[in-house]
Amino acid sequence: MDITIGDAAERLGTSIPRVRRAIDRLGIVTRSMATRDGRPPRVLDEEGFQRLRDELGSMPAHALRGREELKVLAAFNMNPFGFRSRRAVAITAGISPTTASAIVDRLLEQGLVVAVPALLRNSGRVIRGMILEANRTNTTWSEILDDVLATHLPVPRMTSTAKIVPRRFWHLFWNAQPAQLPIIEHADFIASRMLLSKDPLAVSWAMTHLPASSIEKTASLRQVNDSDRQWLLGLSRARREALDA
User: Fold this and answer.
1) Are residues 75 and 52 in the same domain?
2) DSSP 8-class letter at 172
3) How many domains are there within the chain?
4) 34: buried, middle or exposed (CB in 10 Å: 19+, 13-18, 0-12)?
5) 140-155 confidence digits (pLDDT tens)
6) Who contacts 20 (Cβ-Cβ below 8 Å, separation ≥6)?
7) Which helix (H) or strand (E) holds 133?
8) Which distant-in-sequence residues (6+ apart) come within 8 Å of 161 by Cβ?
9) Threshold 0.70, pTM exceeds
10) Residue 130 sits in which domain range?
11) Is residue 119 in a domain?
């Protein structure tokens, strides 16, 4: 089905100029749609629209919150273990660090996000720090949840394939030799250690480097509760979509 640039902008919850810039940047082919009068509009096919959605993300047209704020809220919603920094929020949401930092500060003031004290690993040392998490006890979350769930974040650029787990995560494998665990052979075991570690950086790395089947395997483990199982299955679906894009 052909989609006009105006319709694409409306469906993505963004502006026509932004859609035009993305079309040029991605090299998406458009064509003129025949009309009886007036200037023929430019249209693109479903494949082109999907590429736009992967690049720009999408959100509901009449949401209660702004575009960038919805991206940040969606990032928190898909990361139950939270973030160690505002920069990590920015990377997941696909927006600039400056914008993400301002939005996180605003969400902290509104009580939608909280900063929780935690012990964190940093270059092999344990330090005291803070984790930024969604505060789901805040009643406003229930008011905006439909909009947050309808928000699709931009698909992250695929990184080069890793062969083993990075050294900074080796502490999660206390009874194994991480350097001797090729990801291609031990992805299920690696996924279980990283995804259940509650280390936001480990979870983020696993999300983008491990296969969806290994994430699903972790979700099926007996020790995983129903809440964690649901977000893990959602994570595996997102991973499959990213690989199929």
Assistant:
1) no
2) G
3) 3
4) exposed
5) 988 998 999 888 888 7
6) 5
7) strand 125-134
8) 209
9) no
10) 67-149
11) yes
